[in-house]
Design brief:
Elements lengths: L10 H8 L4 E6 L5 H14 L7 E2 L1 H4 L6 H6 L1 H4 E8 L7 H16 L7 E5 L15 E2 L9 H18 L2
Length: 167
């Protein structure tokens, strides 16, 4: 069983507990946003110029047989980044709210996990109070949008920076 909060162990020790596979990111989303999160996953993997980019959804990453609450609490151990697909549905999904809070608390509690939570603001949604101190990204799902190149470059920088920090 994994602790919800880190006891200060470094990432290499944490990684040894969950295996050698690292995902670049997981997209934490409300169940109502499943299709939109899959589209987001496709856009990131197909449009962002990062070799072998591994983006997963919680069901792709949580080991089968692991209780969902425990699995949501350990996403930061398996993923370099946790992207929170912050739509209007997130506040109504109790399970994903738990996952969001668990990962935010870990990222604030452990200096090695800081800045690894990336909220995607979807459709101009207001950022929730619990994430107001976390740097958010305006998610652009239209590759023809004039804002898409900026979104794409920002994500490329984030993925490459965290690959460098967490090999």
């Amino acid at each position: 069983m994994f602790a919800l909060f880190s006891d200060g162990n470094d990432l290499e020790e944490d990684r040894a507990h969950v295996g050698e596979q690292w995902f670049d990111a997981v997209i934490l989303h409300a169940s109502e946003d499943e299709m939109a999160a899959r589209l987001c996953q496709e856009i990131l993997q197909e449009q962002v110029n990062v070799p072998n980019l591994e983006i997963g959804l919680p069901d792709d990453i949580i080991t089968p047989g692991t209780p969902t609450l425990d699995g949501l609490a350990i996403l930061l151990l398996k993923c370099r980044l946790v992207i929170i697909y912050h739509s209007r549905h997130m506040s109504m999904d109790g399970l994903m709210l738990f996952g969001k809070q668990a990962n935010i608390i870990q990222s604030l509690d452990d200096p090695q996990k800081r800045n690894r939570i990336i909220p995607f603001i979807v459709d101009g949604e207001e950022m929730s109070v619990d994430m107001c101190t976390i740097q958010s990204v305006n998610y652009i799902d239209d590759i023809r949008s004039v804002n898409f190149p900026s979104f794409k470059k920002k994500m490329e920088r984030l993925f490459l920076m965290w690959r460098e920090k967490i090999a």
